[in-house]
Amino acid sequence: MHASKSPVERKLAVEEHLDSSFSTTDVLSISDLHCKYEKTPVVQSASFTLHPGEIGCLLGPSGCGKTTILRTIAGFQNIDQGEIKVDGKLIASPTLSQPPETRNVGMVFQDYALFPHLSVLDNVLFGLNKKDKNTESKALEMLDIVQLKELANRFPHELSGGQQQRIALARALAPSPKLILLDEPFSNLDTELRRSLSLEVREILKAQNTSAILVTHDQEEAFTVADKIGIMMKGKIQQWGTPYDLYHEPANRQIASFIGKGCLIPAKIESSHGVSSELGLASSPHPLLHSVGEEVDLLVRPEDIVFASDSPLHAKVTQKHFLGASCFYDLELPSKQRVSTLLSSHLNFEVGDRVGIRFSADHIITFSKETA
Q: What positions does the domain ABC transporter occupy (predicted)?
């Protein structure tokens, strides 16, 4: 009989197996990227990596530089500083720019960019090697993956917007690229279709173990599709992390305000785990990174404000947005400070009502006061 392995030995064996089963090379590596149009900086000091099978997202308002980064990866835009590597190979630097067709990168455009005079099948065939005898079967396989094989002989104008988007994805996946780039791919679709298609696209990419970068200004879309998100503002990536990290551990007050409709209210550090504000005393399970007595700003998200009819604290309803199962309320505290809350629509308050509320947060997030 062989002696059974200790827990440490079993852990080492598992880690060794994982190391041998998965590539350690990042599919995408961007280091200290700078870009400018004429003399105007558009992207500054952007750095992030994408692991095999990961879906990343660049999220931010229009004009923040996210599409420019996508264009540099695709090869449509030169860079002024830094490096871009795909699968460990340098594809772009200030002195090197590989042609787009040699980068092993696929792209799905905002307007789908399908050829109107070609059938669905021929659109997917377009990016494949015509000398390969299996091109048609490969294209049909891609159409089957996006569940549109039965429409192979139709033309793009005969398809819905969602179907055209899936055809564009099938065409991008057909050559088996290392990386797929998605430039605002759902922006032309209605809300319900955008939500369902974003889930479908994630499932397809995960089933193919294909890495991807999505560019969007829609937070819900980013959180639905991506494993990692980079928040971009004014040409800089403010934070790169999981949706959970961005929401519960924002790196700065700009991200805190941008993600999740949060607001910041004045507060004071009372102890290593306690902070007081107009909403009352709140306790943090983790030590607060401020000195006792320090004046700070407390992040308050809609889910942190709960209805409490017996609370001594009342807020005035200033706006109401009916969402079906819930209502989103903007509230004014006695100090005129504004906060928001999301409550069951059964409560059904009206603008002008005074509502008893209580602060109830699992994560206490504070920021030092900004100085002029």
A: 28-259
